[in-house]
Amino acid sequence: MNLKKLKWMLMLLCAFVFAGMTSACGIQSEVTIGTQTYTETKILAEMYKALIEDRTKLSVDIIPDLASSSLVINAMKRNDVQMATLYTGEIFNNHFPISGSKDREEVLKEAQTGFQKYYDFTWMKPLGFENTYAFTVRKDLAESKGYAKISDVKKDMAGMKLGVDTTWLERSTDGYPAFSKTYGIKFGQVFPMEISLVYSAVAQKQVDIVLAYSTDSRLKAYNLQTLKDDQQFFPPYDASPVLRSDLLKKHPEIEDAIAPLVGHLDADTMISLNYQVDIEKKSEREVAIAYLKQQGLLKS
User: Fold this and answer.
1) Which of 24, 82, 165, 278 stands 20 to 30 A from 64 (CA)?
2) pTM of the full predicted structure?
């Protein structure tokens, strides 16, 4: 079998699998939520599902592990998926013209207006946390050196070892060269590595500082502290529920059902929820339901 034929068969298989996930014997739920591959989007989807089914008469399905936010957006465009969690920094991925501002409120406004105009999606207010790149150190080092923000490490940069995602080093506009120019920081040694390895590397003192994700469960597992991006170098990535506008017009009760989550999930809460799934090996649904019950958000 030649490579071209194999690729075609794999694409066909993926199409059948996706179709099968969105429909069972031709019967679809009234709302289908898509998630990316990472844990927090799956937990949030379970929260949306539980709240919608608890507070409305609608039934909800979840399609997990869509490979990227772009794939989620395309699935929403096709109406295979009607709802998802997206992050405001998504606007920097060339979906429509933007100003380029990194101001948090401006980026949110551009996400809301742009996705409404070009995709007919309703971008709700943020849930209360963002998942973005964050420079990270061990908590004991932060306490002994007084590190709270990125600028604080400048005085020690020459003797520090940085562990960082390989691809970030090579990006011209928002990678290491641009970061160094913005902060005036150039670390003594730089060690490229897979993003999944940076957490254990800094915890085991193989490096002093790493570039991590701000709501990753391993921040808690390895007792790490993120540093404030005081020069606002990284774009904001505030998590928000996003829905097809035609779904909300037909079922405005959905917005009311999930409204209790908006503005009430901070980064520490999300790290803790992710930790329960990633480290304690609980299911996303178990963690979501337990949180909603703890908060008194489920009526039944």
Assistant:
1) 165
2) 0.88
